[in-house]
Amino acid sequence: MTRSKQVGNHKSDKKKNISKLWKTKRRVKDIDQIHHDLRPENAERLLNQELDYQLPGNAQHYCLHCARYFVDLKTLKEHFRTKVHKRRIKQLKEEPYTQEEAERAAGMGSYVAPQKVEVETQEVEMK
Asked: What UniProt keywords apply to this chain's record, in alphabetical order (predicted)?
C-alpha cells in the first residue's frame, strides 16, 4: 500500500486543512438566527445601522432575510428579485427548529406539525 497523498497543504505549516478554511470562509447565518433578526426590535436595529466603512455600502443597505449587505439601493432592489432571495423567503416561512421539537422527535411528547410563519420582503424607503 502506498501512502495517501496530502491534499491542500501547499507546503505551509499555518494552513493544515484548506478545505475546512474554505467551508467556513463563506459562512452565513443559519435560519434560526435570521428568525431572531426578523423580530421587530432586532430588525429596526439592523436596518438603521450606523456608518461602518468596513462593510459594503457602509452598512446602509442590508437584506434581513439573507443577512447580506449591498453597495447601494439599486443592487438591494435587484437582489429582491433574484432566485437566492426567493428561496430564502421560502425557507423562512417554516417555523425554526426548537429544543421542544427535538424532544418530541425523541419520543418525549406527541408530534406537532411545524407552523407556517408569514414572511414578506422588507420595505425599502428611498432616501
From this structure: Cytoplasm, Metal-binding, Nucleus, Ribosome biogenesis, Zinc, Zinc-finger
- Above 70 in pLDDT, residue 18? no
Q: Which three cell numbers stand for residue 47?
A: 436596518
Report yes or no: 36 and 42 within 8 Å, Cβ to Cβ.
yes
DSSP-based three-state secondary structure for 111: coil
Query: What Rg, from alpha-carbon coordinates, does the chain have?
Result: 20
C-alpha–C-alpha distance, residues 23 and 125, integer Å: 35
| pTM of the full structure | 0.71
The angle formed by the CA atoms of residues 45, 48 and 37, to the nearest 5 degrees, is 35
**pLDDT computed for residue 75 by the predictor:** 94
Give the CATH fold of the 27-105 domain. Answer: Double Stranded RNA Binding Domain (3.30.160)
